[in-house]
Every structure is written in C-alpha cells, then in structure tokens.
Structure to design on (149 residues):
C-alpha cells in the first residue's frame, strides 16, 4: 500500500507566522538603523543592506514553507523549499563577502597605523637629532626661525 503525503504543514501556522513577523521587524529595524548610521563604512552598509533585503524576502517564504505549504501539494512544496534554499545560500554568500570586506578593511587600517607609527618614529628621531629644538608653530609669538630677535 502506498503512503499518502501529509496534508499538514511542517509546523503550526500560529507559531511560525508570529515568529516570522518578529524576525522581519527586527531585520527591518536593523535596515533602517544601518541606512542612517554615519559610523558604518559605505562598503559595509551596502553589503549589509543587500543582506537585510534578501532576508526580508526569505523570511515570509520560509514562513510559508514551514507553516502553510503541505507535502501533499508536492509541486508548490518543492518549489518553495528550493527557493528557500537558494535564498539561504545567497544570505550565506553575502555573509562571506561581508567577512572578506571586514578583513580587507582591517588590513588597510593596520597598514595605515604602521605608516603613521613609522612617520612618528622618523619625526621623533629627527627632533632628537636636532637636539630637541622643534621649529615653532604658526601660533607662537616668536619670530620666524624660532629665536628671539
């Protein structure tokens, strides 16, 4: 005898849909925050915005797949789950891109700090070589050359 496919969804809709709503509100608030945050670098903002948008599309689809689609509707069930898997792969790919971008940004910042430190050391060595006589700044009242006339 052949087994019949279940006419029930994988999870009850009354659990899945409120959880999906909470997740969507959370992601939407993150999207709104990141669009207005000045301290976030533009490259990170673009990647995370794209990821938020993909997640906002994926969550309702996952909610449908878990709480409404039934295995008895095999064509719809398979298409919805294939779309969910594809979108989840896109989310993971965007997360890898974000990680790689963070590594590149970190490497650039370390390189810049090393260069700044080298510049400070060269300047300190030059000052020490001059015997600590540092040329006067523009705000000093002393005449040019740093000596009193």
């Amino acid at each position: 005898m052949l087994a019949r496919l279940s006419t029930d969804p994988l999870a009850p809709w009354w659990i899945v849909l409120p959880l999906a709503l909470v997740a969507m509100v959370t992601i939407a608030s993150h999207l709104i925050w990141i669009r207005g945050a000045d301290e976030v670098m533009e490259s990170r903002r673009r990647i995370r915005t794209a990821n938020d948008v993909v997640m906002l599309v994926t969550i309702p689809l996952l909610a449908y797949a878990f709480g409404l689609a039934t295995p008895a509707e095999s064509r719809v069930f398979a298409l919805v789950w294939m779309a969910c898997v594809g979108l989840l792969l896109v989310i993971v790919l965007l997360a890898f891109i974000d990680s790689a971008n963070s590594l590149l940004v970190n490497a650039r910042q370390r390189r810049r700090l090393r260069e700044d430190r080298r510049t400070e050391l060269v300047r300190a060595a030059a000052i020490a070589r001059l015997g600590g006589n540092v040329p006067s700044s523009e705000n000093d009242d002393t005449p040019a050359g740093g000596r009193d006339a």
